Amino acid sequence: MRIVLVGPPGAGKGTQAAYLAKNLTIPHISTGDLFRANISQGTPLGVEAKSYMDAGNLVPDSVTIGMAEDRMEQADAAEGFLLDGFPRNLAQAEALDAYLQGKGLKLDAVLDLEVPEDEVVKRIAGRRICRKDSSHVFHVTYNQPETEGVCDSCGGELYQREDDREDTVRKRLEVYHAETEPIIDFYRAQGLVATISALGKVAEVTERAMSALGSDA
Ligand code: ADP
Ligand code: AMP
């Protein structure tokens, strides 16, 4: 299956993607995680992306689209993937369609996670991620690690993302409404969108997602 996850920052895309990718045996591809890995390795791509990310803006398409396509070219993505955080504007959605069309492929579904803004703000304020692997995500109240400050999966140090500070979060929400939300209508016109509520326990949301995708959790 080729799936796109969409929803505001803090909706729980990364959290759900980890379970969905496992259930569906497809890789979880998060452009945010790819950028953060580049930043921690100090690559030129990471250096370029960091200033945009810290300001809550989108990294330019000229950088992002190529990086996402390179990742989709890897062998583990041959039979499908779960995209998280990509595409994030109409130009990226069009580029993804063109990329897949060029290979005779298409998306199977776009899963739209719906969460009220006040809940998103609470989720982001308490989010802590792992220094070793930013796809390992926790929350100070809703999803606590066994030992405070330590990643359950790999023992890495947990920290608060630079762009999870309040003023940057406001900017990221604005960018989401202005640039990312329009892709939902773009995909709706293709009959691909399934909207589910992302409120409730993580496992409940996973169940809703799996049934929206036509699979059992
Ligand atoms: P996104 O990838 O959409 O930005 P995350 O998956 O990182 O969102 O989740 C944001 C924060 O909310 C994290 O701290 C995560 O632990 C927490 N979270 C995710 N799903 C839920 C849920 N169903 N209920 C409460 N907190 C959640
Ligand atoms: P995320 O981890 O999905 O919350 O993304 C963190 C940040 O990385 C965003 O605020 C953007 O600055 C950048 N980013 C991630 N994915 C994209 C994308 N598809 N296009 C542009 N910027 C992105």
UniProtKB/TrEMBL annotation:
It catalyses: AMP + ATP = 2 ADP. Gene3D superfamilies: P-loop containing nucleotide triphosphate hydrolases. InterPro entries: Adenyl_kin_sub, Adenylat/UMP-CMP_kin, Adenylat_kinase_CS, Adenylate_kinase_lid-dom, P-loop_NTPase. PROSITE patterns: ADENYLATE_KINASE. It comes from the Bacteria. CDD domains: ADK. ATP binds at G10, A11, G12, K13, G14, T15, R127, V137, F138, G200. Residues 30-59 are annotated as: NMP. GO terms for cellular component: cytoplasm. SUPFAM superfamilies: P-loop containing nucleoside triphosphate hydrolases. AMP binds at T31, R36, N57, L58, V59, G85, F86, P87, R88, Q92, R161, R172. Its EC number is 2.7.4.3. Belongs to the adenylate kinase family. Monomer. Catalyzes the reversible transfer of the terminal phosphate group between ATP and AMP. Plays an important role in cellular energy homeostasis and in adenine nucleotide metabolism. Consists of three domains, a large central CORE domain and two small peripheral domains, NMPbind and LID, which undergo movements during catalysis. The LID domain closes over the site of phosphoryl transfer upon ATP binding. Assembling and dissambling the active center during each catalytic cycle provides an effective means to prevent ATP hydrolysis. NCBIfam families: adk, PRK00279.1-2, PRK00279.1-3, PRK14527.1. This is Adenylate kinase. It comes from Streptomyces noursei (Streptomyces albulus).
